């Protein structure tokens, strides 16, 4: 069912007066992440991208939970809230549904979002609230000094798993697709151009947009994504997804592509030849079914990250929770008139106590 308010949602937030620059979105707070942290790159990309939206910064809000990434609202010259561990999606949901004139962004980490905040995240995704969620994934708990997180690989040696983690890690993109998220993407902190393009697509999307950002923690998990950042190895490891284009990667000498196995229906990586070129999958981010997007999300090996898709895996139109709720409220007012909060709170059984 198409959302009648899909285009309207993008126009509800007041526009900025005059031209904005990156400087307008920098706060006066000292940035206090560890030197070399990937969060700096993400912050710079977001601050540099915000002027493109042309929105009044007084109508932009960043809500975070707890963790290194959750200091983000301090460094944005917008409204913001450093909230409760794992609860940022819930607080942001209340804000987005009650104030549709705001552009609401959630900043969270793999521990914050996927451990204590797991249920809050998946319900925001399934409801399709008009939120943009930036999930910083460094595969470690950085703020509390290096314990394993819900995305740490099996066997990970940390302070809390001295003999190696026994937990199978979450794949945040797979989780989001399983929750029927209408927009799911993945990018990397150090690829400014790609990160900005994904942020742009997320901002344009009506409904919940989840962007997983691979982010390096150089203190407690340095080099976790090195295979995706090293130019030589990245050619063989990174699958750049573009809607409407064949899913090809690798070098000119050794081109690779993604095909569907005719027997199992699963996706597989093959060396491209004249015989199989016609079988190379064309990426369709707008496919109503999340099946192929989910299969793409499973290509990456959890340990080596070989064959990792980045880009927009899914972008489809679904009814937006904020719009549906607004329609219900309008219908209720039309039928019954505006309610009186004091009358509702008092109810029918009230007494006056005279002392």
Automatic annotation (TrEMBL):
The keyword Oxidoreductase applies. The keyword Nuclease does not apply. Keywords: Oxidoreductase. Residues 66-213 form the Thiamine pyrophosphate enzyme TPP-binding domain. This is 2-oxoacid:ferredoxin oxidoreductase subunit beta.
């Amino acid at each position: 069912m198409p959302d009648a308010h899909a285009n309207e949602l993008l126009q509800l937030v007041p526009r900025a007066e005059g031209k904005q620059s990156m400087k307008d979105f920098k706060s006066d707070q000292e940035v206090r992440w560890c030197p070399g942290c990937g969060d700096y790159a993400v912050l710079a990309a977001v601050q540099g991208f915000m002027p493109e939206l042309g929105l009044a910064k007084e109508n932009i809000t960043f809500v975070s939970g707890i963790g290194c990434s959750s200091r983000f609202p301090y460094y944005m010259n917008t409204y913001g809230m450093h909230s409760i561990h794992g609860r940022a999606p819930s607080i942001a949901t209340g804000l987005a549904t009650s104030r549709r004139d705001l552009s609401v962004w959630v900043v969270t980490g793999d521990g914050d979002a996927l451990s204590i905040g797991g249920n809050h995240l998946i319900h925001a995704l399934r409801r399709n609230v008009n939120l943009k969620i930036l999930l910083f994934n460094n595969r470690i708990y950085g703020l509390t000094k290096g314990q394993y997180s819900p995305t740490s690989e099996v066997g990970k040696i940390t302070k809390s798993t001295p003999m190696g983690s026994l937990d199978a890690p979450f794949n945040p993109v797979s989780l989001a697709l399983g929750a029927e998220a209408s927009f799911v993407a993945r990018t990397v902190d150090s690829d400014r151009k790609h990160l900005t393009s994904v942020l742009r697509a997320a901002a344009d999307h009506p409904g919940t947009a989840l962007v997983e950002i691979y982010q390096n923690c150089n203190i407690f998990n340095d080099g976790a994504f090195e295979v995706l950042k090293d130019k030589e190895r990245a050619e063989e490891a990174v699958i750049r997804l573009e809607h409407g284009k064949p899913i090809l990667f690798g070098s000119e000498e050794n081109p690779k592509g993604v095909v569907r196995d005719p027997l199992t229906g699963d996706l597989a990586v093959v060396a491209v030849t004249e015989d199989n070129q016609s079988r190379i999958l064309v990426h369709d981010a707008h496919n109503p079914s999340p099946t192929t997007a989910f299969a793409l999300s499973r290509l990456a090996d959890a340990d080596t990250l070989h064959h990792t898709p980045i880009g927009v895996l899914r972008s489809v139109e679904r009814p937006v929770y904020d719009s549906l709720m607004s329609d219900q409220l309008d219908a209720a007012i039309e039928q019954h008139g505006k309610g009186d909060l004091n009358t509702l709170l008092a109810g029918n059984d009230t007494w006056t106590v005279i002392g």
